[in-house]
Write a structure and sequence with these properties.
two-stranded antiparallel ribbon; about 270 residues; mainly alpha
């Protein structure tokens, strides 16, 4: 019972922070997600270098470089940040990080650099794409809908999978996930899309019901793949959770793994499909 209460309390605090970031303006969004990006980088580095910890200096550069790239990805919308193009910041980070590795004689260069660049590619880059989604016209409502779909997919997959899950979805990576849970998550997500499109068109005005359902299908599929991708990294590292930051939930990557795959997929759907 105590574990359930802790998990519930942590989940409510996390959801509250995400809603504040999404609904309370761009500066709240930038502040909260910058911290999430930094924590995600730290956890990814720890997962990928479990047997050989990186130096403090390279870890600091990875975190600061990732946060800088994330913040500068919003430069088009914030004149104060428009001095440096995020592309050049990313190139500068890669050159600096590679050069620093030359002077680290004690550690495996391939493993360390791979961990750093993996953190940038799998954590920072997808989060940076939030700038394209969030700050467009009414983009915050699209992002809010995506978050609702992710949460409904997780809820549906857990409930249905727990009740009738028999056929393993991807046993090699995540033994507990089932096809029944996947279809349950998809069903819950589509129901949420129909409710949003039918009963809240004044607020969620970007698409009609059919397009919301299409978006829900995209979110459900890529949410599952994002979860599986993080499970693959954790299984390779030999750990159950990405961290211990969130009591009852694990680490920050355990909470945003779906989002990291969903955001790029949603942008492709919005720009090239509908």
């Amino acid at each position: 019972m105590k574990k359930i209460l802790i998990r519930t309390a942590t989940g409510l605090v996390y959801i509250a922070l995400i809603l504040i970031a999404t609904l309370c303006g761009p500066y709240a969004f930038l502040s909260i997600f910058s911290i999430i990006a930094a924590l995600g980088i730290a956890e990814m580095l720890k997962l990928c270098t479990k047997d050989e910890k990186p130096s403090v200096a390279t870890t600091v550069i990875d975190i600061l470089g990732g946060m800088a790239f994330f913040i500068l990805s919003f430069s088009h919308y914030f004149p104060d940040f428009s001095v440096i193009n995020p592309l050049w910041a990313g190139i500068g980070y890669m050159l600096l990080r590679g050069t620093m590795q030359l002077y680290d004689k004690r550690r495996n260069a391939i493993r360390q650099l791979s961990a750093s660049y993996m953190a940038m590619f799998l954590v920072v880059f997808p989060l940076s794409l939030l700038s394209k989604l969030y700050l467009e016209a009414n983009g915050h409502t699209t992002l809010l809908a995506c978050l609702i779909f992710i949460w409904m997919n997780d809820t549906g997959a857990f409930c249905v999978g727990s009740l009738i899950g028999r056929h393993r979805l991807f046993e090699r990576i995540s033994p507990k996930k089932s096809w029944e849970g996947f279809w349950g998550g998809l069903f819950f997500t589509i129901v949420a899309a129909v409710i949003i499109g039918t009963y809240f068109p004044a607020y969620f005005s970007e698409f009609d019901v059919i397009r919301w359902v299409g978006l829900a299908i995209v979110v459900s599929a890529f949410s599952t793949w994002g979860d599986l991708a993080e499970s693959m990294v954790k299984r390779t590292a030999g750990v159950k959770d990405s961290g211990h930051l969130l009591p009852g939930h694990g680490g920050i990557l355990d909470r945003i793994d779906s989002l990291l795959f969903v955001v790029p997929a949603v942008l492709i759907y919005i720009n090239f499909v509908i």
